[in-house]
Design a protein that fits this description.
The protein is an alpha/beta fold. The protein is built from 35 helices and 24 strands.
Length: 881
């Protein structure tokens, strides 16, 4: 019996005498006319209405979970279950459910709402309960008096408290916390309507537990996850603005649960159900807070005491004939240089700073809530590894900010050691970054230390994040994947005793990145800027006026990619990397600026009329739409308005100029701006590869007066794929032929070509510009490879360092452009030319060498003087160009 009920029983004789003397004021209450005192439907007084709503609006909650509850409520009776429910938490859920039109609990077995009733209604409630005492000897209770099954079977929602500890269970007589669950199970047997159990939790702080014993503060004022009144009040005033998190856990279909145990007793099923609920609560909390916080020193000791590392140290010591203690000192230096040192004080301060800064930099964060929910689901089963694409320094911050503010723990982030400079290195390390060298080939000790550190992170259940490209993309498109981290994580998961690693690709798409000028300069040949404090402080200039906002950021979560720990084959590692990259590319959002830049660069002229631009932009938009590409919310109901805004954005960025003339409005593009403009195009260029290659083959055949049937087109397609292999992987879930057929069908629909299915293709004449538009999107990459072939054939003398070789290719590209042998300035791109080196080596045109005295990390090449295929490749390319 609750304390207030006991007081009512003690006062009943006095109330009864007063009722006899003053019957009008102390009349008998009608039990059927009023809700139970614990009901969320009870009227609220002025204090409640004034105080709580303004605070509750700032508590975080997953909007996707609320929508899911609405759908569940339409077809089932919702039963809310909580572990630690107090007046503040119950009042918050009352407010939340009322605000979102969710079923309100008409009964709670722990909390009453008497203190929040208006005095008039409170007096009526007391009168009603005094009537119950007069009849039954105590106030009625749905659980104790057995009304709960009938109440729930009738379609009413209730809230039940289930303590996480089993010490209070009195299973023999079913009078403890299991009794309500047994009655809910009985209600499902009585009801034809499904009953859904919804776990509810409330965290006043998102900080994880500390791996330490209970303190005197915990003993006196309650632990953080189950605080007493004083500690809860303190936590409320400290955390309600930013750090309090309401959680709606994974629902349980009670009808399905009961059908799986048709012969089970309600008491036995209640024990099973309670165990499942407690595990659900633990999993949900771990998803939000992460594993317990470990100090950096603990990680250092765990790494250095690892048996596998110890054996490797002994092997290195024997091989190099030096002391094992000396090798161990080097290993200790490595792990101290590497390990994160998470401090939630830093993290919360940085998150608050980011909340202000990112809102000034960007207008909107468009988050894939379904993908985020799937990521949470994956993390509930074990550690996950987020793999974003990498275009901007903002990438380091944005994903952690999104996860932290959407009810998920922050990941440990693999960062380049170049970012460990003071003071940002300390801040990043405290926010979960661990710093690793970009190159450590041949350093067995460093690799073993890193693998051991990763093993401990996986074993302890920490989520992680790394960039599969290894560094920022300088061109706007996804770079070739680096396989090192995938291989290390696979090996680490095997040693940690896990079945595998779950990679979650995350596509980050920007309307505009803040480093676009410096990246464009690097692509044109400027040296890469070393990260330093002064360089990052320059980015604060974007925090000024509203006009400097960089548009929106689109965060999309791809389908998780699983890698089994036992699969050591390098081919499997390569496939895993390609699958991740495919998901990253597949989930890139097409923005108005990207489509506008694509349309403009589709014309070889320095100017294009506004009408031509609109036709080309509409063409690209329609093709992407029929491919199922995700479109920016900026398009809304008017693509014309979106493209006009994109033109304005590009004009403000001095990428293009707009003009009005007697010939009509037109756009002009300076040749020097094509590289910068291509950064926008390159974010979506992978979507245009198939139709671009198909259009190029058709256009080349028409120009040479040759007939082209389907079989020959497929054959030519395979040849051109070779020329583009330095930039693109045509890795898809469908056969290449189906993509070619889809591209041909679209071109026919647009009137660009004619011909029967599978037969000879002919030109429509009027649609020639469509073929030119699409083929222009692959021509710069063909020209880039052509530049590399020409330079390799004529200009490589002796051993040349990779950096010098690329610089020479850029000079050759400038000569070819001046002589008119290539048409696209953006083909002379430093990053793309670097990517051709691997293809040249694959074709046997150049070979890598390591000359004496060269720096260990500086790769050198020399011309291969055998009978290579370079001349044939060049001839084939010249036919296309």
């Amino acid at each position: 019996m609750k304390i207030f009920d006991s007081i009512l029983v003690l006062l009943h004789p006095a109330y009864k005498r007063l009722a006899q003397r003053f019957p009008s004021k102390f009349s008998r209450g009608d039990a059927t006319a009023f809700a139970h005192p614990s009901s969320m439907l009870m009227p609220k007084n002025f204090i409640y209405k004034t105080l709580f709503p303004r605070f509750f609006g700032r508590i975080s909650i997953d909007e996707g979970a609320i929508e899911k509850l609405k759908n569940l409520a339409a077809n089932s009776t919702l039963i809310y279950v909580a572990t630690h429910i107090g007046h503040l938490e119950y009042s918050y859920y009352t407010h939340l459910f009322a605000q979102n039109g969710l079923p309100m609990a008409v009964y709670n077995d722990k909390i009453t709402m008497r203190r929040w009733e208006p005095l008039k209604d409170l007096w009526k409630t007391i009168a009603t309960q005094q009537t119950e005492i007069d009849t039954y000897g105590r106030p009625l209770d749905c659980v104790k008096d057995g009304f709960l099954p009938e109440l729930v079977a009738g379609g009413s929602s209730v809230m039940i408290n289930v303590p996480p500890s089993a010490l209070n269970d009195e299973e023999l007589f079913m009078t403890g916390p299991l009794r309500p669950l047994a009655q809910i199970i009985e209600a499902q047997r009585l009801s034809k309507k499904p009953i859904t159990i919804v776990p509810l939790d409330f965290l006043w702080s998102k900080r994880p537990e500390k791996a330490a014993k209970r303190t005197m503060l915990d003993i006196l004022f309650g632990e953080k996850d189950n605080p007493g009144f004083i500690r809860k009040t303190v936590l409320f005033w400290r955390n309600f603005r930013r750090h309090a998190q309401a959680s709606i856990g994974r629902e349980i279909d009670l009808k399905e649960f009961v059908e799986k145990h048709p012969e089970g007793k309600n008491s036995d099923l209640a024990v099973i159900l309670r165990t499942r609920l407690v595990e659900t609560f633990k999993t949900e909390r771990r998803t939000i807070t992460g594993p317990p916080i470990r100090p950096r020193g603990w990680f250092v000791q765990e790494v250095l005491s690892d048996d596998f590392l110890d054996r490797r140290i002994c092997e290195i010591s024997a091989e190099k004939k030096c002391s094992a203690d000396d090798i161990r000192e080097i290993a200790e230096k490595y792990v101290k240089e590497m390990a994160a040192d998470v401090d939630f004080t830093y993290l919360e301060l940085l998150d608050r700073f980011l909340g202000v800064t990112l809102c000034k930099l960007y207008e909107n964060f468009d988050v894939d809530t379904n993908g985020l929910a799937l990521a949470k689901e994956m993390y509930s089963h074990g550690p996950v590894v987020f793999v974003p694409n990498h275009k901007s320094h903002v990438d380091y911050l944005i994903l952690s900010h999104i996860l932290y503010n959407n009810g998920m723990t922050i990941p440990h982030i693999a960062a380049g050691i170049n970012l460990s400079f003071w003071p940002l290195g300390k801040i990043f390390r405290s926010c979960g970054a661990y710093f690793i060298k970009r190159e450590f080939k041949g350093n067995v000790l460093y690799k073993t230390v890193l693998e051991t550190y990763l093993k401990i992170l996986l074993r302890e259940g920490y989520s992680q994040e790394f960039f599969i490209e290894g560094g920022r993309s300088r061109t706007g498109k996804l770079r070739q994947p680096k396989l090192g981290m995938i291989s290390l994580l696979r090996s680490a998961s095997e040693k940690a005793g896990l079945s595998g690693v779950c990679f979650i690709p995350v596509s980050l798409t920007y309307d505009r990145i803040i480093e676009e000028k410096s990246l464009t300069a690097e692509n044109e040949g400027a040296p890469k800027e070393t990260e330093k404090m002064l360089g990052l402080l320059k980015l604060t200039k974007y925090l000024g006026k509203k006009s400097s906002k960089q548009g929106s950021i689109y965060i999309r979560f791809g389908t998780p990619v699983h890698l089994e720990s036992s699969l050591k084959d390098p081919v499997v590692i390569q496939k895993t990397a390609l699958d991740i990259c495919h998901q990253l590319n597949k989930n890139v959002v097409a923005t108005p600026a990207a489509i506008a830049a694509t349309a403009i660069l589709g014309f070889s002229k320095r100017g294009v009329s506004l009408a031509q631009f609109n036709n080309a932009a509409k063409l690209v938009f329609e093709y992407l739409s029929q491919k199922g590409v995700q479109m920016s919310c900026a398009f809304g109901n008017s693509t014309t308005r979106a493209f006009n805004n994109a033109i304005s954005q590009l004009r403000k960025g001095r990428m293009i100029a707009t003009h009005k003339s007697a010939l009509g409005p037109y756009l002009s593009l300076d040749e020097s701006k094509r590289v910068g403009l291509s950064f926008f195009k390159n974010s979506i260029v992978h979507y245009l590869m198939t139709i671009g290659v198909v259009s190029k083959i058709i256009l080349s055949s028409f120009n040479r007066g040759e007939s082209l049937d389907h079989d020959r087109l497929v054959s030519e397609f395979g040849k051109i794929r070779i020329f583009l292999s330095h930039e693109f992987h045509f890795a898809t879930t469908k056969a290449v032929g189906s993509h070619i057929d889809a591209a041909i069908k679209f071109l026919k629909t647009q009137g660009a070509i004619n011909g029967p299915d599978g037969g000879t293709l002919t030109s429509s004449g009027a649609g020639l510009w469509i073929l030119e538009q699409f083929s222009s999107h692959i021509e710069p990459y063909l020209e880039t490879f052509y530049i590399a072939l020409v330079h390799a054939e004529k200009m490589i003398k002796g051993d040349v360092e990779a950096k010098e070789l690329v610089a020479g290719m850029q000079r050759t590209g400038e000569d070819l452009f001046t002589l008119g042998r290539i048409a696209h300035k953006e083909a002379i791109n430093k990053s793309d030319l670097e990517h051709t080196l691997k293809s040249l080596e694959t074709f046997g045109i150049i070979v890598s060498v390591s000359p004496d005295g060269a720096r260990s990390h500086a790769k050198h090449y020399r011309r291969h003087h055998g009978t290579g295929p370079d001349k044939n490749l060049k001839v084939e390319l010249e036919k296309l160009l």
